[in-house]
TrEMBL record:
Protein name: PPM-type phosphatase domain-containing protein
SMART domains linked to this entry: PP2Cc (SM00332)
Coiled coil: none
Superkingdom to which the source organism belongs: Eukaryota
InterPro entries hit by this protein: PP2C, PPM-type-like_dom_sf, PPM-type_phosphatase-like_dom
Pfam families, per database record: PP2C
PPM-type phosphatase domain location: 33-244
Origin organism lineage: Eukaryota, Viridiplantae, Streptophyta, Embryophyta, Tracheophyta
Length: 250
């Protein structure tokens, strides 16, 4: 059985009211509270898909942006299974998880299934002590720390015929604030500084009275998408905001 769920985001044209955008959050229930928003830009189709797997794996949640819904569903199922197996095996042996083996196995299976060696994806596996990011192009992940420090965990590859696969492991610290995982629809028009200020205000500041029904991380994702639209973004916009301060670092 497929564990978790792929976010089926409503395809909303850029001139629609942002309140109609489909969002998904489970703040307070996972290793890191999160908000998700997907908006179809001026393209004719939504070419990317967002996936989240939360509350399924002890101590780990999975967030990803993928090149197509089919790839998202395949990788969601495989990653969940492989991470579960690795975490269980390593816990029994008292050793650290081999994330390189997990991601290598996952993509070797998925690429063979979708018949594309250039399948693009960015996946963030968020644990209570570490953040693992696998980058195969198509999106960018940035970790923001107190004081506005931005640490790119994955950059967008724009001009490569083949996809370079990179794996980064970040040991979580008490000064880590949040991660923003998004495609070029956001990053083409919104800077790291603007992203930090807006998300920080939503997560740790006062929310307007009309926003009390939304979680702070969901509101942050929506505001980022609104800003990208206002600045003329022509691409599809997928944004995941992951609040690291909503969980405790061991």
């Amino acid at each position: 059985d497929v564990v978790g769920s792929t976010s089926e985001a409503t395809q909303v044209p850029v001139d629609s009211i942002m309140a109609d955008v489909a969002t998904n959050d489970l703040d307070g229930k996972t290793n890191a509270g999160h908000g998700v928003v997907s908006v179809m830009g001026r393209q004719r189709a939504m070419t990317t898909a967002v996936s989240t797997v939360v509350d399924e794996i002890p101590s780990y949640d999975i967030f990803g942006i993928f090149d197509g819904l089919r790839l998202a569903k395949l990788l969601e199922e495989r990653l969940c299974r492989l991470v579960k197996e690795e975490v269980t095996a390593c816990h029994g042996r008292g050793v650290a998880a081999d994330w390189s083996k997990v991601t290598r196995s996952c993509f070797s299976e998925a690429v063979g299934t979708v018949r594309s060696t250039a399948a693009k994806a960015v996946v963030s596996i968020v644990g209570k002590e570490e953040v693992i990011v696998l980058c195969r192009g198509g999106a960018r992940a940035v970790l923001y720390s107190q004081g506005g420090i931005s640490l790119p965990l994955c950059d967008i590859h724009r001009h490569h015929s083949d996809v370079d696969q990179k794996l980064k492991i970040h040991k979580r610290t008490m000064i880590d604030d949040f991660i923003v995982l998004a495609c070029e629809g956001l990053w083409d028009v919104v800077s790291d500084d603007d992203t930090y200020r807006l998300v920080k205000s939503c997560l740790y500041g006062e929310l307007p009275d009309g926003c009390k029904s939304e979680s702070s991380s969901t509101k942050a994702a929506v505001i980022l998408a609104e800003l990208a639209i206002a600045r003329g973004s022509k691409e599809n916009i997928n944004v995941i905001v992951i609040d690291l301060r909503s969980s405790t670092v061991s």
